[in-house]
Amino acid sequence: MPSTMAPQGRRHKGSRTNRSGQLKPQIRFLVTFLALVAIAFGLIALKPVNDAIVDPYTAFIARSAGAILRVFGEDITVRGCLLTSPRFSVSIFNGCNGLITTLILVAGVLAFPATWRAKLIGVVGGIFGVQIINMIRIVSLYYVGVFFPKYFNDAHVVVWQTIVILAGIALWVSWANFVAIPHENR
To answer: How many CB atoms lie within 10 A of CB 102?
Structure first.
C-alpha cells in the first residue's frame, strides 16, 4: 500500500534555511542589514528628523572643519553649513557630512552576529573612523578648491566619495575580522 506521507526532500546547498527552518546566518545578516539601512535612510529622509538632527549635525561638521582650517592659518567663517574664506567657499550638504557611510557601517555592525560589546566597539569606532576620514576629505577638498579649482568637482565626486565608501567598508571588514569574529574561528 502506498504511503500517504510525502517524502522529505533533502535540502540542497542553495537553501536559505538550515535544518531547523531558521534562516542561514548569511541570509539573516543580509535581511537585517537591509532592513536597518532602509529604516535609517527612511528616518533621515523625514523633514522633522532632517531639521532636528541631520542639519545640526552637518553644521557641527562644518564648524569642526572650520576649526581645523583655522589651525592651518585659514581665515574661515562658518555660517551654518557654509565655509567661506577670501580664498574659497564650500558648502557641506547631507551627502558630504559622512552620515550616509556612517549609517551603512553601523547597520553592518548591528546586523553582524557578534557580542554587544563587540558591536559597541564597532559602532563607536566606526563613527569616529568615518568622521576622521570625512574631516580629512573636507579639509583636502577646501585646498583642492583653493589651489586646483578646476579639479574640485572630480576630487569631490569621483575621488573622495569613492575613498569614503571604501574606507567605510574597510572599517567594517577590519572590525568584523579583528573584534567580532572569535579568534578560535579564524
So the answer is: 23
Within a domain: residue 89? yes
Distance CA 15, CA 13 (A): 6
Helices marked H in the chain — which ranges? 25-45, 47-49, 55-71, 99-111, 116-147, 152-153, 161-175
Torsion of CA 102, 107, 110, 114, to 10 degrees: -90
Question: Measured in whole angstroms, how far is the alpha carbon of residue 46 from the centre of its chain?
Answer: 19
* Per-residue pLDDT tens over the stretch 104-140: 999 999 999 999 999 999 999 999 999 999 999 999 9
Provide the 3-class DSSP secondary structure of residue 39: helix
Q: Is pLDDT of 2 > 60?
A: no
The x, y and z cell numbers of residue 104, run together, are: 551603512
Q: How far apart are the C-alpha atoms of 140 and 169, rounded to whole Å?
A: 21
Helix (H) / strand (E) containing 77:
strand 77-79
Between CA 67 and CA 139 the distance in angstroms is 10
Residue with cell 538550515: 18
9 confidence band (pLDDT: 50, 70, 90): very low
The answer to whether position 35 is within a domain reads yes
Task: Report the number of distinct structural domains present in the chain.
Answer: 1
User: 163 and 133 in contact (C-beta within 8 Å)?
Assistant: yes
Let me know if residue 9 belongs to a domain. no
